[in-house]
């Protein structure tokens, strides 16, 4: 079976898409296909890889628009998934490209530093005698200790595509949750503060990171958990948290969102006033009418029950 | 105290800053002519390497390194477990300048792939455990080629390092009393391996990396070491290429710690090691006079996938998978009548190699193997306990092991040999200022065969030790190197780069062609089985390959992330490593641990209870073997039986 690779090339300022033809072999991964091109057809094609067993995180690329660990995913699988004999290979999204499929990790490492990426062990623990932790406490964060720093989660992150300056890459939130939920940590207060400042509430909730993580770590879930922790640690005096609380209050009280007050509750009167032109536009199109009383959903009792059950379920999950 | 790219680094920097605003231009960096020649000395009046400098786009290198404004007290080469542990230890000494250099990014190392755990006597799970027991198991496992004083130091310190990692945040699997849990690995009498699921190495590397980030340790990433620069007996520093810009860096350092990992890639596809295990540090160390100790000691794991060498866990056989040859015969009974498939790694690896050699294997050449058949195991148990094995077989060999057998063959797993560590209390090599740690070193703790979960603990113990040792040296010594010589060496490498990368297609074989020929030589003539005739042939073939290497075709002359040149450097290193393996194997006329001579099938303590030291002559480039006695303290050699 033959296949075509369309590889996005970028060398010293020149950009182009280059076509290569290959014969598909059993068990041929995307990385093996790239390697074959480099060794047999074009030594100038550049990419990075190391372990070829999906643990080192060096080889993630974008194939037909989606991030993949190239050492892990089979060419055949992708050809079937996309019903095509042509695979388009690009560097990961939301990274600066250095050359071909090689991307720049430095800005990402710099953002890890923002969250103080270590635990500060409780006073009773020491370097000489280690720490204590129950298996249950260990279970709370172990999933998030499995991030391999491959960058797949950030590749299609919509928030990162808009602006990375005021946000952390999804994997940094995974690391953060791993530290915040670790019972050995004296207090996650400092970390949570840093995380809120670094953009916790700016996540779009689009779930692309969770869909792309090759290790199934659910970065979007980690972000939600971190948000919950900010409430538990009284770090809820910010727009995001107030917005979430306002929505919660509206839904519990009336079963509908009161758009005219939501903004004021979230951002405060002055900031909200600056958004007056938007309010005027909303009123004009009939999407918001401050003169009318806020309607109550006729199914309010059912809605309250749902909220109650959801709260009970999340407590149980803990 | 500046030097080298001094002022020109600054100049270049200024010109590039304005470009970064636009992403397109950021890449293009047109502000700098590709051939800006800057000759002569800088304003500072120190010698400058004549040559071409290119725009520094990345933050992969600290600014002061680019400017030549720093002399490191401790420069660690390699960012695996040993390297980062060493850096953390050295950085505890406030005021010392410490950096970790890596040819990749910090978490892409072989340590990350380690699965089982790290050994250390803590008695948290098994009260009966003792330092003596760990020591004895290690020595017996190493077929008595271990230096027993070093093993004692190792066993005494391994436990401490496990507690330290706990305090640093390693996500240990826990037991009910809140302590980390320890499990028993093959060849050990007690449960002493602490772990995180089946990804202990990954957890270790990431924990250390986070600590390094938090301590603000400098990383010099994506820089491949080309050479250690010496001025007579004094260390100048390290010559490296920045992958991003193609600039050749001369980084002055009072001490360096070589922690570059093993050399499994000498067997290329027949290894479970990452692409990066090319013995770079060992070669650089040999070239400045450090001997390569016991290079012939390579551990072969019996069950790698024939397709690509990826490991299928030992638990496959433990759960009941059997080995079958081309004729459907379960052959292990011939080699180990009682234990059959459950015999030790070396015995099973040799049995498989024999079957293949005698024509009862499947497939051909480097990918020949035998079948591993999982069908005696109920499918639900395969799904429950061998999930990863199922997945790897399915993915790489296209085989559903619940329905069909999968082709496997031995795969190079670990390098016991390495740069001689002259003093295990400090990690020092025999060359002043150069320290060694981890798989690239030979302490010798593992002797002729390493036991499971001893490698991660070695990395921690001796990484820590070497970090302390190098820091102590740096504190009590001034920089004695010559920056002129460092600049000279830089300049030479610049010329090499230009010459090598601009060769025409017609000059000779390609890098992958020579590498594949090397692998055929190494696998069939210096692999699981060795003998005089094949090793002599191998030596000649390698010499011929080195000649071809000297005029091989690289095929890429770009200065930006030139992975073709990078692979050219790695191949050069692998060829030298292969030579040393063959010389060591020729010299050791006995069979011990991972080294198996058909013509000398027995262990010979009378003549070979000693280490091989392979030196490379600086002038002639010839290899020479010397011997060094094994240190025996508590345990007299006995026949090794399991």
UniProtKB/TrEMBL annotation, chain A:
Query: What's the EC number here?
Result: 1.3.5.1
The source's domain of life comes to Bacteria
Q: How is the cofactor bound?
A: Binds 1 [4Fe-4S] cluster.
Question: Where in this chain does the record put each 2Fe-2S ferredoxin-type domain?
Answer: 5-95
Q: Does the keyword DNA repair apply?
A: no
Q: What class of enzyme is it?
A: oxidoreductase
What reaction(s) does this enzyme catalyze?
a menaquinone + succinate = a menaquinol + fumarate
Q: Start and end of every 4Fe-4S ferredoxin-type domain? A: 138-167
Question: SUPFAM superfamilies under this entry?
Answer: 2Fe-2S ferredoxin-like, alpha-helical ferredoxin
Q: Give the transmembrane ranges.
A: none
**Gene3D superfamilies in alphabetical order:** 3.10.20.30, Alpha-helical ferredoxin
Q: What terms describe the molecular function in GO for this protein?
A: 2 iron, 2 sulfur cluster binding; 3 iron, 4 sulfur cluster binding; 4 iron, 4 sulfur cluster binding; electron transfer activity; metal ion binding; succinate dehydrogenase (quinone) activity
Q: Which CDD domains match?
A: fer2
Q: Name one GO biological process term.
A: respiratory electron transport chain
Cofactor(s) needed: [4Fe-4S] cluster; [2Fe-2S] cluster; [3Fe-4S] cluster
Pfam families xref list: Fer2_3 (PF13085), Fer4_8 (PF13183)
- Biological or metabolic pathway of the protein: Carbohydrate metabolism; tricarboxylic acid cycle
The answer to whether UniProt assigns keyword Magnesium to this entry is no
**Entry-linked InterPro entries:** 2Fe-2S_ferredoxin-like_sf, 2Fe-2S_ferredoxin-type, 4Fe4S_Fe-S-bd, 4Fe4S_Fe_S_CS, Beta-grasp_dom_sf, Helical_ferredxn, SDH/FRD_Iron-Sulfur, Succ_DH/fum_Rdtase_Fe-S
Q: Which family does it belong to?
A: Belongs to the succinate dehydrogenase/fumarate reductase iron-sulfur protein family.
Stated name of the protein? Fumarate reductase iron-sulfur subunit
TrEMBL record, chain B:
Q: Does the keyword field hold Transport?
A: yes
The main place the protein resides is membrane
Cite the InterPro entries for this sequence. FAD-dep_OxRdtase_2_FAD-bd (IPR003953), FAD/NAD-bd_sf (IPR036188), Fum_R/Succ_DH_flav-like_C_sf (IPR037099), Fum_Rdtase/Succ_DH_flav-like_C (IPR015939), SdhA/FrdA/AprA (IPR030664), Succ_DH/fumarate_Rdtase_cat_sf (IPR027477), Succ_Dhase_FrdA_Gneg (IPR014006), TAT_signal_bac_arc (IPR019546)
What subcellular locations does the record give? Membrane
State a single Pfam family of this protein: FAD_binding_2
Give one GO molecular function term.
flavin adenine dinucleotide binding
Residue ranges of domain FAD-dependent oxidoreductase 2 FAD-binding in the record? 73-456
Gene3D superfamilies xrefs:
FAD/NAD(P)-binding domain, Fumarate reductase/succinate dehydrogenase flavoprotein-like, C-terminal domain, succinate dehydrogenase protein domain, Succinate dehydrogenase/fumarate reductase flavoprotein, catalytic domain
Q: Which keywords belong to this entry?
A: Electron transport, FAD, Flavoprotein, Membrane, Oxidoreductase, Transport
Required co-factors: FAD
State whether keyword Oxidoreductase applies.
yes
GO biological process terms, alphabetically, are: anaerobic respiration; electron transport chain
Q: How does it sit in the membrane?
A: Peripheral membrane protein
Q: Read off the SUPFAM superfamilies from this record.
A: FAD/NAD(P)-binding domain (SSF51905), Succinate dehydrogenase/fumarate reductase flavoprotein C-terminal domain (SSF46977), Succinate dehydrogenase/fumarate reductase flavoprotein, catalytic domain (SSF56425)
The UniProt record lists the Fumarate reductase/succinate dehydrogenase flavoprotein-like C-terminal domain at: 515-642
Active site, per annotation: 345
What Gene Ontology cellular component terms go with this record?
Answer: plasma membrane
Q: Which family does it belong to?
A: Belongs to the FAD-dependent oxidoreductase 2 family. FRD/SDH subfamily.
NCBIfam families in UniProt: sdhA_frdA_Gneg, TAT_signal_seq
What protein name is recorded for this chain?
Succinate dehydrogenase / fumarate reductase flavoprotein subunit
Q: From which lineage does this chain's organism come?
A: Bacteria, Bacillati, Bacillota, Negativicutes, Selenomonadales
